[in-house]
Amino acid sequence: MSLRNIGIVYRKELMDSLRDRRTLISMVVVPILIMPLLTVGMDVLMSDVIGKAKQQIPKVMVLGGGDSPQIMTELHALKDIEIVPARSDYANEISDKQIRAAVEIPPGFDAAVQSGQQVTIKIDDYEGDLSSGLAADTLRKALRDYRDATVSRRLESRGLPDTLITPFDIKDQNVAPPEKVTGAEIGGIVPYIVILLCLTGAMYPAIDLTAGEKERGTMETILSSPVSRLHLVLGKFLMVLTASLATAALAVTSMGVSFGIGRGMLMSMASGGDSSAMQLTITLKSVLAVFGMVVPLAVLFSAALLAIALHAKSYKEAQSYISPLIPIIIVPAIVSMLPGVELNAHLALIPVLNTSLISKEIITGTYHWKFIGLIFASSCAYAGIALGIAVKLFQREDVLFRT
Amino acid sequence: MIETRQLGKRFYDKKRGEIRAVDGVTFRCEPGRIYGLLGANGAGKTTTLRMLATILEPTEGSATVAGFDVATQAEQVRRNVGFLSTATALYGRLTAEEIVRYFGRLHGMDDATISKREDVIFARLEMNEFRDRRCDKLSTGMKQKVSIARTLIHDPSVMIFDEPTLGLDVMAARTIIGFIRECRDQGKTVVFSTHVMSEVEKLCDTIGIIDKGRLLVEGSLEELRSRYRQTDLEEIFVQVVEP
User: Fold this and answer.
1) Distance between first and last Cα of chain A
2) How far apart are CA B196 and CA B200, in angstroms?
3) pLDDT category, A180, cuts 50, 70, 90?
4) Which of B59, A215, B175, A122 is nearest to B161 (CA)?
5) Which residue of B has its CA nearest to A19?
6) How far is CA A171 from CA A141, A176, A194, in A?
7) Among the three residues B136, B155, B174, which one is the final residue of a domain in this structure?
8) Are residues B76 and B51 in the same domain?
9) Mean pLDDT, chain B, as a whole number?
């Protein structure tokens, strides 16, 4: 084994790849941009959309209520809604977003309330539509306040205290540390993105260094040099691994910056200076641990991609072989995000899914060392097998010179 | 020196079954001589030369190049061979100098030795003007010069050329032909494959006509002319291949 020769091949492949625009985009640009876009970008976009929806005064129809001046006075007093004349096709108006909600007052509402009868008010809205939901919330709150006031008046008239119907209060208190809260919110998506970028970062160099070489005619050139095929494949493999890890490292760094600085700043701007409420915590330890778990997976991806792409005669053919890998990788990563999917000894042996699940746990601050050891060992074993296959394939003339 | 004994190569193809690409080829080429393998497309020239360059492994027979066995001493063979063909392309994103240095390092040379050797080759091939230019920006002729420099950097004693002028324009082809002649004059052992008769007539000391993987006839141009009572090499070739 000549480390010198492996190093010569590696340095050349690195220099060559860093001059390839496709590799640079997948290795550097995508991971740097995707995390801020997914975190800060999405947050800013969402707060912008919600802010705009809240600023709008929604149009609301009040159906009926002609014989109930008290409730009508309450509704007309609301400043956050604009009441428009009632029409019979109110449902279509809501669907067409001409109005955002409607409230149906049953006949004789005031009289019924006065006499202590049970009556029902209906609120019509368009489920899933943000503005419609906000309008319905405004109506719901106003009607709840009116109902509470009615109850208070009734109790007062009978000389009874308010505590008669609310004997005790319920208050929620969070005991989870901040990183656990953060992990629960983003624990699934972060490993998913990192794993996916690990694959895409390795994809273009793997194709370029194998099928690309065959297509350009440089494979025969390098095979005529004294470098052994073992050294050649190891040099190429190290380059693909570098691209994969660099992509993952940049994604993790970008993630840290996005959550640590960028998000705080942007959210501070978005919320008018109060950034403390928006603070999210991912510890450096958990970021490094996730990266450590991803390393054997990057080895597996790099070796597998090299082996697959080597079978192809051209760049295009290699892309068609490798494209189906993306859903194969995405599915287990998505499964890990499903609620209720918990890590166990069986799942710890399934590649990609195991790394995704353990990374999710690590981000929430939970370290199951037994599973971490098992997953790291199994991932290393899979990576070793894939690298062995790639090395074997580089010795096969029918693969190198497939016509 | 190059020496082959009953050299053969069999492939297995799913559709066509077993294919004998090279079948019992025996020849010898001494230092300071050019051996020309003449044959049609698919005759077995490229497979033979790839075996000599240790890119492919023989399935039958044996061959020695510069005294080393191609099957058991492949690395030593490659250290003593310069292999050039139209299929041996260059790395487009590297400069001419980077490519030559890369191959020098793979041949175990240190940077100081590479620099000295590079200066001599670049001056001889008039490459200094474009030594820092990326290969994908070079003309075909310039690329051929880089390929030549790449094969010469380790000063090999054996040169193998597989249809080196295929697809080249007249000027680029002339550069290659001149270079092959120079190799012979420097005492290198040269094997050269082509299907261009005029190149064989100009260059080769010994001609071997190969067809369907078998070496059918061998001799100098004069010997072949006298044996087949023809002066035109093309006529001789047709008589040998289609008796």
Assistant:
1) 31
2) 7
3) low
4) B175
5) B93
6) 19, 16, 38
7) B155
8) yes
9) 91
The span from the CA of A265 to the CA of A354, in Å, is: 34
Structure tokens at A300: 């597996």
Look up tokens 């793997």; give the residue: A206
In a domain, residue A152? The reply is yes
Residue in A closest to B78 by C-alpha: A226
The whole-angstrom separation of Cα A200 and Cα A243 is 9
Q: Is the pLDDT of residue A279 over 70?
A: no
CA distance A19 to chain B (A): 6
The DSSP H or E segment spanning A266 is helix A263-270
The answer to whether residue A21 neighbours chain B at the CB level (below 8 Å) is no
Looking at the domain assignment, is residue A173 inside a domain? no
In this prediction the ipTM stands at 0.89
pLDDT in tens, A365-390: 788 888 899 998 998 999 899 999 99
Q: Could you tell me which residues come within 8 angstroms of residue B225 by beta carbon, excluding any fewer than 6 positions away?
A: B231, B236
Quote the pLDDT of residue A125: 93
A120 vs A123: CA distance, rounded Å: 10
Residue A14 has pLDDT above 50, yes or no: yes
Within a domain: A169: no
Kindly report the pTM of this predicted structure. 0.79
| Token pair belonging to A167 | 């004997």
Closest-approach residue (CA) in chain B for A212: B91
Mark whether A321 and A212 lie in a shared domain: yes
A389 in the same domain as A328: yes
Residue B106's nearest CA partner among B134, B78, B67 is B78
A339: left (phi over 0), alpha (psi -120 to 50) or beta: beta
Give A 201-230 residues with CB within 8 A of chain B.
Answer: 216-218, 220-221, 223-228
Confidence class for position A13, pLDDT limits 50, 70, 90: very high
A223 and A105 in one domain? Answer: no
Determine, yes or no, domain membership for B85: no
Task: Name the token pair of A7.
Answer: 């190093």
What is the C-alpha end-to-end distance of chain B, expressed in Å?
A: 32
C-beta separation of A86 from A80 below 8 A: no
SS3 (DSSP) at B211: strand
Distance CA A111, CA A68 (A): 7
CATH of residue A125: 3.40.1710.10
Q: What is the pLDDT, as a whole number, of residue A25?
A: 86
A19 touches chain B (CB under 8 A): yes
CA separation, residue B85 to residues A157, B104, B125, B163 (Å): 106, 19, 18, 6
Residue with tokens 């073992």: A230
Report CB contact under 8 Å: B55, A8.
Answer: no
User: Do A262 and A322 sit in the same domain of this protein?
Assistant: yes
